[in-house]
Specification:
Layout: H1 5-10, E1 16-20, E2 23-29, E3 36-41, E4 44-50, H2 60-71, E5 80-84, H3 90-98, E6 103-107, H4 111-120, E7 128-132, H5 136-141, E8 148-153, H6 168-177, E9 178-190, H7 195-205, E10 210-215, H8 217-220, E11 226-233, H9 239-247, E12 254-257, H10 258-264
Parallel strand pairs: 5-6, 5-8, 6-7, 8-9
Antiparallel strand pairs: 1-2, 2-3, 3-4, 9-11, 10-11, 10-12
Helix pairs in contact: 2-3, 2-9
Length: 288
């Protein structure tokens, strides 16, 4: 049977490597944190989890989504959240830690990955987190109308967002599942010439009245490939506080909204199911 899980974790330099449906999963121990791990799929970083401190968000894009979670409701107030894409369940753990008694649903297609994460990085038994192994859009369709205060989309297959999660029809399902005034946030990835990002903003604008985008200025200028966090609602967003938090991050980001964000789309047309394509693959240099 080999060494026990606890013995394996005590071997600080040893990773946990296992085949999952999406490729080869690696859990790499963090040398600076006793019970922290990074999850990689086929070499692409997916998540970082500190079991001793689930409020610690190591990846910059997850910190930016963390700001959105923090401002979705008054501090500490429980929320009902849906996470499309699970990874190592970092953001669900963060929500449970910062908003105790929250009720959360996680939809993660890769059942083998879910089993690996549950085994090696167990959830707090008191956290109200239900994990469902299903396609993100199919799982979202099972969420009751108006149930969610917050929907987080962070879905990648082979480092690309699947096409069927980029369309107006997908956002119709998001809106159906959100309560009035609820917040939708999505992790988008793109590089020059930013055609995917422009189209995703246009698509969101076709379904939501309030939009903001948080990203590294170099990504927004088309200088490099990177992540951008879309925030959308039918109620006013906390723009001033989101701007402050993004700017004060260890990796400062810029927030765009209003006319400047619409100008950025450059006349891009909203994506529908019939025109949808997966997001572009990142260049190999991104993960070096």
């Amino acid at each position: 049977m080999g060494r026990s899980r606890d013995n394996r974790r005590r071997a600080a330099a040893e990773a946990v490597v296992e085949a999952v449906e999406g490729g080869l999963a690696e859990l790499i121990p963090d040398p600076d944190r006793a019970r922290a791990w990074s999850l990689l799929i086929d070499g692409a970083p997916q998540s970082h989890v500190d079991l001793d401190d689930p409020t610690h968000l190591s990846f910059e894009y997850q910190r930016r989504i963390g700001h959105v979670i923090d401002l979705t409701a008054p501090p500490g107030k429980p929320v009902q959240a849906v996470h499309l894409g699970g990874g190592a369940l970092t953001l669900a753990r963060y929500t449970a830690a910062t908003r105790p008694r929250s009720t959360q649903q996680v939809v993660e297609r890769d059942a083998a990955l879910v089993q690996l994460v549950r085994r090696e990085l167990p959830l707090d038994p008191g956290a109200r987190i239900r994990v469902r192994s299903a396609d993100a859009r199919e799982g979202l369709a099972k969420v009751p109308d108006g149930w969610a205060d917050l929907i987080v989309a962070d879905v990648f297959s082979g480092a690309r967002t699947p096409a069927h999660l980029t369309s107006t029809e997908f956002l119709d399902e998001v809106r159906r599942a959100l309560r009035p005034g609820g917040v939708y946030t999505a992790n988008l990835a793109d590089g020059p010439p930013l055609a995917h990002l422009r189209a995703q903003i246009a698509t969101a604008a076709a379904r939501f009245t309030e939009l903001a985008l948080i990203t590294d200025p170099a990504v927004l200028r088309g200088k490099r490939f990177g992540n951008a966090i879309l925030v959308a609602s039918d109620s006013p967003l906390p723009l001033a506080e989101l701007t402050r938090r993004a700017a004060s991050d260890p990796h400062p980001a810029r927030l765009e909204h209003g006319a400047k964000l619409m100008d950025f789309t450059g006349g891009a047309i909203p994506v529908t199911d019939t025109s949808a394509v997966a997001s572009p693959a990142p260049p190999p240099s991104v993960f070096r």
